[in-house]
C-alpha cells in the first residue's frame, strides 16, 4: 500500500513534469512580447534571448543573444531598435535564473526517482520537496518580474514610423500569457504607464 507521502509526491511529480515541459517550450519561443507595427507591416516577437521579425513578404528573420557581448553598445539604443529590439540586461538575468529554476525542477524529479529506493527514502524525499519548492518560487518570481519589466515604458519597442518620428509600441496581445503566465492575473492599468 502506498504511503501518504507518496500519494502527495506523485501528483507533485506529474505537475512538475508538465510545468517543466511548458516552461521549456516558453523559453524556446520568442513570443514573450508580440507587437504588430502597422507602418512597417510586420510582426515583431521578442523573448528573453531571441527576437524575430516577420517581413511583409512573409520572410522571418531572427536574431539572438546569450551574453552582453552579443549586443553593440557603441550605437544608440534607439537607433539599434530600428533594426531589431534591444536585449536588456534584465532579460539575460531572467533567462539564467529561469534556467536555474528548470535545473532545480529536473533535480527534484531525479530525487523523486531515487526516493523510490529503500536506501535513501528520507533524504531523497526531503531533497525532492526542497528543490521542487525552490524551483516553483524561482519560476513564479521570474514570471512576475518579466510581467512587470515588460510593461515598463522604457522596455517597450521603439520604431521609426513612416513620417520619421519615433513611436513607442507596446505588446497588445502578449503570447507569454499562453505559455508561462496563465495562472497569474494581468497587471492593473495604473502600473502599465
UniProtKB/TrEMBL annotation:
Keywords, in A-Z order: Membrane, Transmembrane, Transmembrane helix
Record's subcellular location: Membrane
Transmembrane segments: 12-32, 94-114, 126-150
Chief site of localization: membrane
Gene Ontology cellular-component annotations: membrane
UniProt key word Transmembrane: yes
Family annotation (InterPro entries): Claudin_CS, Clc_prot-like
Membrane topology, record value: Multi-pass membrane protein
Pfam assignment, any one: Clc-like
Protein name per the record: Uncharacterized protein
Amino acid at each position: 500500500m502506498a504511503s501518504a507521502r507518496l500519494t502527495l509526491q506523485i501528483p507533485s511529480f506529474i505537475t512538475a513534469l508538465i510545468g517543466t515541459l511548458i516552461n521549456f517550450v516558453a523559453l524556446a519561443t520568442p513570443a514573450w512580447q508580440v507587437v504588430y507595427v502597422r507602418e512597417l507591416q510586420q510582426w515583431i516577437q521578442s523573448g528573453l534571448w531571441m527576437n524575430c521579425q516577420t517581413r511583409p513578404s512573409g520572410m522571418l528573420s531572427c536574431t539572438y543573444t546569450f551574453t552582453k557581448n552579443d549586443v553593440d553598445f557603441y550605437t544608440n539604443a534607439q537607433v539599434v531598435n530600428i533594426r531589431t529590439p534591444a536585449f536588456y540586461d534584465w532579460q539575460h538575468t531572467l533567462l539564467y535564473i529561469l534556467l536555474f529554476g528548470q535545473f532545480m525542477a529536473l533535480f527534484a524529479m531525479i530525487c523523486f526517482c531515487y526516493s523510490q529506493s529503500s536506501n535513501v527514502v528520507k533524504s531523497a524525499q526531503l531533497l525532492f520537496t526542497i528543490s521542487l519548492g525552490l524551483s516553483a518560487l524561482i519560476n513564479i518570481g521570474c514570471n512576475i518580474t518579466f510581467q512587470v519589466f515588460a510593461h515598463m515604458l522604457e522596455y517597450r519597442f521603439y520604431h521609426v514610423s513612416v513620417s520619421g518620428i519615433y513611436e513607442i509600441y507596446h505588446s497588445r496581445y502578449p503570447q507569454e500569457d499562453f505559455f508561462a503566465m496563465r495562472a497569474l492575473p494581468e497587471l492593473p492599468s495604473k502600473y502599465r504607464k
